[in-house]
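Figure S7 source data.
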Amino acid sequence: MPPVAARQLWDEVDLLIGIGSRLEMPYLNWANKFMQYEQKPSGGPKLLRIDIDPAQMDIFQPDQAVVADSAQACRLILEQLETAAEPDHKRLDDIATAKAVAWQAIQKVQPQLSYLNVIRQVLPRDGIYVPEVSQMGFATWIGGFPVLQPRSFIEGGYQGNLGYGFATALGAKVANPDRPVVSVCGDGGFMFGAQELITAAEHNIALVTLVFNNSTYTNVRRDQLLGYGGRFSGSEITSPDFVRMAESCGVEAWRVDSPAALKPVLEKALAADRPVLIEVMSERGSEASPWEFIHMHQRLGHSAAQQ
Ligand SMILES: Cc1ncc(C[n+]2csc(CCOP(=O)(O)OP(=O)(O)O)c2C)c(N)n1
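Tokens for the predicted thiamine diphosphate complex:
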């Protein structure tokens, strides 16, 4: 379930099962106090963690630790559940409602959600989507990009390291030459590994790369705006002309400046059997902040006073 939808139901959860997860979203971003490592979480539902790494159970202690291959452990749990209980139709309805409410609410994170909606429309179900930490990446975290089948979504996760996305997406395409692969980066992050354009050209790696160019490290600039009175330092960057840069490396490139313009260009890029870069232009500071959907101390529509 996407995290914003899951947050709607969190207060009624009796047992949380964490599968190969550090559970950062519920305990770091939803709880009113920060996650304490090397202890049991205080309050909240009972916690069962499944992880192949025993050290994880000391780092964040569950009520019940299951050190196991997650596929095996999940299969056993499912077998028990199938015989133990009738499906709870009321609960299934609540889940469907929470998903619909969350999906509607996050649409205000624009223009990122409109761009994600275009990518989702154009990329086939088995296409692999590789976002990097950026405004588009954060919009993905909050559930803005429905993942339709296993092994079709790769991202930096907890590490959130800039420079990871483009190189990783190249590897994903080499490993899956028959599946479309789309890499999405901000201009700042893309520049950490931009030289790999030459690798893409040399080996004809038919990856489609979207670079969102707003000449900004946006979340750093936003922090400086909101927390430091707009005293910007190092967050407003000078980016190259990515079309000319890609072309100089032997990679075909196009430029767009709206979600509507992206659609036909992305279709054309995915049909081309060669590396393509699409530069997406946007104004500095024009992206809506996604943070209210990440640090969700309350459900949607609930103020702190109602808690
Ligand atoms: C190696 C590394 N350095 C710094 C950061 C902190 N950081 C996270 S997002 C970000 C800004 C990213 O800017 P850009 O790639 O241009 O994307 P935008 O947010 O503007 O869409 C920074 C500096 C990080 N995650 N990884």
